[in-house]
Amino acid sequence: MQTSDNSRHDGAGPDPLALDVRKSAILNAVVTEYIGSAQPVGSQHVMDAPGVSVSSATIRADMAALERDGYLAQPHTSAGRIPTDKGYRFFVDHLGGPGALDPVGRQQVRQFFDHAHGEIELMLEKTSGLLADLTDCTAMVVGPSHELATLRSVQLVGLGPRLALLVVVLADGAVQKQSIDLAEDVDEGRLADAARCLAAHSLGRALSQIDATLVTTGDPATDAVVSVGVDALRHLGSAEAGDQLFVGGSSHMAAAFDAVDTVRSVLTILEQQLVVVTLLRDVLDRGLSVAIGTEHGVEPLASCAIVVMPVSVDGEVTGTIGLLGPTRMNYPLALAAAQVVGNRLGQRLSESRR
Amino acid sequence: MQTSDNSRHDGAGPDPLALDVRKSAILNAVVTEYIGSAQPVGSQHVMDAPGVSVSSATIRADMAALERDGYLAQPHTSAGRIPTDKGYRFFVDHLGGPGALDPVGRQQVRQFFDHAHGEIELMLEKTSGLLADLTDCTAMVVGPSHELATLRSVQLVGLGPRLALLVVVLADGAVQKQSIDLAEDVDEGRLADAARCLAAHSLGRALSQIDATLVTTGDPATDAVVSVGVDALRHLGSAEAGDQLFVGGSSHMAAAFDAVDTVRSVLTILEQQLVVVTLLRDVLDRGLSVAIGTEHGVEPLASCAIVVMPVSVDGEVTGTIGLLGPTRMNYPLALAAAQVVGNRLGQRLSESRR
DNA sequence: GTTGGCACTCCATTCTACTGAGTGCTGACC
DNA sequence: GGTCAGCACTCAGTAGAATGGAGTGCCAAC
After folding, report:
1. CATH classification of A21-94, choosing from 1.10.10.10, 1.10.645.10, 3.40.50.300, 3.30.2020.10?
2. Rg of the Cα trace of chain B?
3. Which of the two ends of chain B, N or C, has the fewest CB atoms closer than 10 A to its terminal CB?
């Protein structure tokens, strides 16, 4: 855990390497408390926290300093403090500890993956449900792209006079299809010929490795079919066709906010698959595992935080899992859950690939 | 429109055939107004409504009667009236008129289906989005069951030493898969043999027509594979594997209620595919096209209404579309939208079947 | 049967006062 | 110089009282 490398992208405070130890403890206490209670935290409460053994007056002085430096904010005078995005960021980067699933959760994960079987889509969907249950967040699972999986079967099935279906089976068990419009009527025999030719051209290779070199069978009409077939294959290999998004536990967003407007705007975002997938990829590309508040660019999610975790299949990062919650989400838990589930999912997918 | 046959399942009022014409007009006005404003409607406002040309005092008397008969309710004395479930029911059955999409909406539908193409799942998903947009409700689309589509292709693809994938292509373009655990190692040749045998046994029939009769190839090891293959086919044909649910516009539920708890519980229901599918089927089976409030048995949805519409493919009812909104949803619009979209979707699917 | 008039109800809003959690400051202490 | 107790102050939240107004039910008259 502890993504100790990222952050430090804003040169705001005069402190490149953080807070003195007591201020850290106080910030830690405020964040932890606020995550639990969703109520502004006063100096009185912080006194009880471990690692802080000074009077409330001293704590107040430190909290004022933390506010000056942008780690804390006050909803109004005479209220307690709540963490700012910067405060959460520091918490995630330097405090908060590794975090771990409770035994029940760990048991749940183990059980899930022991019994997980069947089609990959179903498993990914259920994984999103599992993650959501574990963390009380909304979980997003982007299926591994199949660019690297090798082709195990290529088939052309005629559906209508000029309509055929290209059906591809990949080594990881994914089945993809693409309907093909044919320029002229093609009978079953010719389709079969074309399919055989396509198979010879592509079997054992990954979808992304299919090149556009001409393949000829000697028969021009069959060649035409093969040609559109190759195009279809390459289309399947392209990114746009691949990403499947599974969202689980969106109801948790309704529990996280009490402003119904916020809920609506967050749900609206979640309905836009492309936005979500892009968002996750973006955060990952920037080397972050957590994006808090406005750190990701999506305004409607300004009061949310995102935890992302890559899913590696055979050492290659292909899938992504993400957790979406309010900025006052339980980061250590979310990170732990995402990591555990991400790892196990990756293992699982690696196994079924070979 | 106008499902003038259902209802009359509770013998509450002494009126088997309803309200005198003015009371109907008043009820109509109250419902219409309340759907628009979400505010209790007073006698003063009803005066302006068409078909009602009496004084507010008379209207008050009628409204009192309507309340006595259970069509209206009063949040408190000295407030206006709001419709009860029974009031909505009467509105839907006898008032409200046919309802129609506005030109913009109709244009949207036309454009959608003119440009709809590609894989069926994608189309259904987008259809749910369309419906949600048109009606400001949450749309549910249950994909047509493939029980009736005939098999066009059956294939077995080896994925691992004892793992194979059964891939089935149906005449409607659906591709289904089912992983198969084999008792012992089976080489590609034997898989191909078994697949050929399965094909001979099942091609041209519908999934639901696959019977369990023994098929023999002469080779016991191959027969074993065929046997699990037949089981897998029959499993695909069974209801449990078939229903795909697409939910669109769940964010509209957050806009419909201002109690965040309600939103959460509704979303929780929507996450349970099985519950939703069962609910829709249930309402449809009871011959209703609208289920209001507690008419369906799902308590968390007591403040919601559901509009369902069957989707007929080649005259056979196979799919379902549903709209979920608050009980004060715009029924005429929802019914119109569901009918138009349902029809066009059915047509579309029928076309691509042959 | 319908209507205008009238007394009544009660939610919603506003205002006030009050409480209490929490702060910032200051002067004393170690 | 950092720490701490004490104190004055602030201000959201709550409760209670007053007000306004939308709406009702009833009744006598048409």
Report:
1. 1.10.10.10
2. 26
3. C
